[in-house]
Amino acid sequence: MIVDQYEFAFMFMATLPGIYLAARKNFIYTENKRYNLFIVRILFTVPLFFIANVLISMITARIFIWLFPKISSFFVGLMGNYAAALVSFIFSLILIFLLQRYVVLPRSLKIETITKKDVKDYDLYYFHPMETMLGGRTYGTKYKIINPNRKPDDLPIRSQLTDLAADFRYLEGEYLMMTTHGEIVVSNQALEILKENDLSGFYTRPVKKDESYRVFSKPDPADNFKYKQLICNHFMPKMSPPTEIVTKKYPLRILVSGNIYYNQQVLSEIADFNQTYEYFGSDYGDPVFVQRFWILTKKARDIFIERFDQTEDDFSPVHLVDEDGNVIENQLSDVSKIL
């Protein structure tokens, strides 16, 4: 069978949504760094969205023929392959737009643009690891929305009711892992390191092992003591200007565009682990994607990098301003050296 240029164009257009999503790391969560590759993600996305694109394009063509038989006879008889390629191209653009707006953007909780000079010379850092694991909701952790009567411009805020559940296969060999819901899980070894260094601002809860994949073997109760969830008990005041908090609608999204700024007075009462006063995320889909950002001191950041195999790219500096709103150039202060 010979494939002409229009059939080739049709098939190529049908692959575009899958290729686009494979390029977005926040759409597919690849927990193992060895498999965090574009070509691996393509194997998941392209076949699925290729089939969806072809089927919907065919259905659209059938509906068009049924509604406009005289016009469609011209296209089917003289320009059938060209019309199919054109329909596929249009549908690909529509599908990519919908996926970007309602799937990719709601999962994009990271700061959009960061200005970095020397990231070692700051008191505070925003922790946003590049590698994450699926959140507790996936494995049965129970949450409750605590603001059901919220205003239209407010995000749904949840409270965790049960111990966090996780798939321990993604935690093997890891000191620390953050979930897509902003929950931090640490191994017992990592927890001991945190305690040895007198890091403050958190307490722990047990992490329950997900057993849904287990078929033949029995669960080991000792597994539920291997990992702990860090619960923050110290919260930052409201961010200071010139922090730009952006609210977008349809769906509602609250994000930070640019750097995070705080008044320098926060250093007098800071803990090593802190969370923002504000909530960020989207009200589309699973509300547990709405979360507070983790703000860590330089001491905590250095331990994460030196002892827990985190990278410098997992942190963005938090800027300080004085009482007049001027950015302080010498960020590393005497206060943070004491902490």
From TrEMBL:
Organism the protein comes from: Methanolapillus millepedarum
Source taxonomy: Archaea, Methanobacteriati, Methanobacteriota, Stenosarchaea group, Methanomicrobia
Keyword Transmembrane included in the entry's annotation: yes
Transmembrane segments: 6-23, 35-68, 74-99
Protein name stated in the entry: Uncharacterized protein
Origin superkingdom: Archaea
Keywords: Membrane, Transmembrane, Transmembrane helix
Membrane is among the record's keywords: yes
